[in-house]
Design goal:
The protein contains 10 helices and 2 strands. The protein has about 230 residues and is mainly α. It has a two-stranded antiparallel sheet. Helix 6 packs across helix 10.
Length: about 230
């Protein structure tokens, strides 16, 4: 029963109200404000390398929250940096002096763009038994059904079956994102290095029991999900 209730709550995550994500941006105004971001994230939010995430089509509330969190960490001083916002050292100084409206406009611009699919690869991963298994099959199983044995919830409960996410709930689109980036973020949540998933710790709790093989497999599978654009 404990497992069922917990994962029902995660699956109904669309009903959770996340504070500070009621973005109302102007994408036309945002087009000018994101010019400096193009070097890393591409002119239309489709970054040229997996080191930097694709921002196109991730959803305005989610993007606005991430920008706010990154700005808060960048503005924090001393020990406060360890517990404030979201630590993205590559973004240091990029959001200095920007207003909430600026961030909303930037989020609106990226949300209005079409994400280009990264794609998935045929590969094998080695699980705890020493056996090598098909990564796409394992990734699909984790994404759609989770792993009840390890108390890992299904990703599709919040991010939708095709990976399109849930914009009103600020759950981002995942389908088509760089697998390498998804893998890095899951590892960061699992290690407690990324903590801006709210007091419910939804991502940290979801990732804490994922193995390295499961993370690689589900990230690879997500890269090939087509959310319909």
């Amino acid at each position: 029963m404990k497992y069922s209730v917990k994962h029902l709550l995660l699956a109904l995550g669309a009903l959770i109200v996340i504070p500070g994500v009621n973005a109302e941006g102007d994408p036309d105004a945002g087009a000018e404000k994101v010019a400096v971001c193009a070097a890393c994230h591409g002119q239309d939010g489709n970054s040229p390398a997996p080191t930097f995430p694709k921002l196109a089509g991730l959803g305005e509330p989610y993007l606005y929250k991430q920008l706010k969190d990154i700005q808060a960490w960048d503005n924090a001083q001393g020990e406060a940096k360890a517990t404030t916002g979201r630590a993205v050292p590559q973004m240091t100084g990029q959001l200095v002096g920007l207003s909430d409206q600026d961030l909303q406009d930037m989020a609106a611009f990226y949300a209005d763009q079409s994400l280009q699919l990264s794609g998935a690869e045929e590969m094998m991963v080695q699980i705890y038994t020493g056996e090598k298994v098909n990564a796409l099959e394992l990734g699909e199983r984790i994404y759609r059904a989770g792993n009840p044995e390890n108390d890992v919830p299904a990703c599709s409960g919040c991010h939708a079956p095709a990976g399109e996410g849930n914009e009103p709930a600020a759950f981002p689109r995942l389908g088509g994102q760089y697998p390498e980036y998804i893998e890095a973020q899951l590892r960061a949540f699992r290690a407690g290095e990324r903590t801006n998933d709210g007091e419910q710790m939804m991502m940290r709790l979801s990732a804490k029991n994922l193995s390295d093989a499961e993370i690689k497999a589900v990230a690879n599978y997500i890269g090939g999900l087509n959310a319909g654009n």
